[in-house]
Task: structure prediction
Amino acid sequence: MTGKVFFSVSMSLDGFIAPDSPGELMGQQWMELQQWVFPLRFTRENLKLGEGGEEGRDNDIARKTFERTGASVMGKRMFEAGEHAWPEDAPFHTPVFVVTHEKRDPWERLGGTVFHFVNDGIESALEQAREAAGNRDVRVAGGGETIVECLNAGLIDEFHIALSPVLFGSGVRLFDGVDAGRVALDQVRAEPSPRTTHLSYTVHLR
Result:
């Protein structure tokens, strides 16, 4: 059975998921956006930061998101921003399919992460990711343009937003360019925690 295609992101209260410049990826704003993630036991385990860390509902959600993911898809902008920021043991530990015009051999990292570079569009990347994921799900990791392209094409089954109590003012908007007349949502869950609010939706086309 083929798994689902989903995305899961942290978003500011004013709708941004990343700063304007890739060079600010690990800057203060971005760290505030992700503040619910870093104290978690799962995050410490996945990034090999040592023992300890918080358990509870946030930790359960982060772990479940990782465990359900059999492969990921991302755009060129996100890959280029992360290429120099991710550790050698990149945090995916599955195949990652990068949508790009650049022709490049697969890039193997420690821990099972292999980046594959796809030159014939998002649908081809998702098809390859589904095959690689097997019975697990495919995560569209980002960035915003790639997520919106998948939404508008009817390729997303569901998504999760961790709504963080921070304002960006500018940056990469999650839903910039979405075809609101075509994409419809059903809310599945709204769940607050001390550092964020978890929002889950299923997606269908009108």
